[in-house]
């Protein structure tokens, strides 16, 4: 896996993944940015949410759960120092579908967190306290 990050100006950077996708990162005006893109630490949080959601959806589909939507809301705390790494992150999974089994949804979240999600495992190894919760919404497909 590879990526390239190129400085544009100020504190704006253009990141390009090895698969050819690009994203703009920028800082807040009080840090010399123009607020034209996500912050680098937000990218880490988004990556965690994407990685975990990828796993949860895959596990639920394999267990034949009729999922119609999955959203994860992430709340993070950072150290009040420089550097200011994440100290705690809570992932709240909101999963919608018809006849979803709560135990299957919970199991999918746990498997992602403990076995499959590389981002979760990496952040926990770095000392970040991760926690998870699940909300299930019954829908008609």
UniProtKB/TrEMBL annotation:
<dbReference type="InterPro" id="IPR003718">
    <property type="entry name" value="OsmC/Ohr_fam"/>
</dbReference>
<dbReference type="InterPro" id="IPR036102">
    <property type="entry name" value="OsmC/Ohrsf"/>
</dbReference>
<protein>
    <submittedName>
        <fullName>OsmC family protein</fullName>
    </submittedName>
</protein>
<dbReference type="InterPro" id="IPR015946">
    <property type="entry name" value="KH_dom-like_a/b"/>
</dbReference>
<dbReference type="Pfam" id="PF02566">
    <property type="entry name" value="OsmC"/>
</dbReference>
């Amino acid at each position: 896996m590879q990526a390239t990050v190129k400085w544009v100006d100020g504190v704006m950077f253009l990141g390009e993944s090895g698969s050819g996708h690009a994203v703009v990162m920028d800082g807040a005006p009080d840090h010399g940015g123009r607020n034209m893109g996500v912050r680098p630490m937000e990218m880490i949080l988004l990556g965690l949410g994407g990685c975990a959601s990828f796993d949860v959806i895959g596990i639920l589909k394999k267990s034949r759960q009729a999922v119609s939507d999955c959203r994860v809301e992430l709340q993070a705390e950072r150290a009040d120092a420089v550097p200011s790494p994440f100290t705690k992150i809570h992932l709240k999974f909101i999963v919608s579908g018809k006849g979803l089994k709560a135990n299957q949804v919970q199991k999918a979240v746990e498997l992602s967190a403990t076995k499959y999600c590389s981002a979760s495992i990496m952040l926990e190894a770095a000392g970040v306290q991760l926690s998870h919760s699940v909300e299930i919404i019954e829908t008609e497909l």
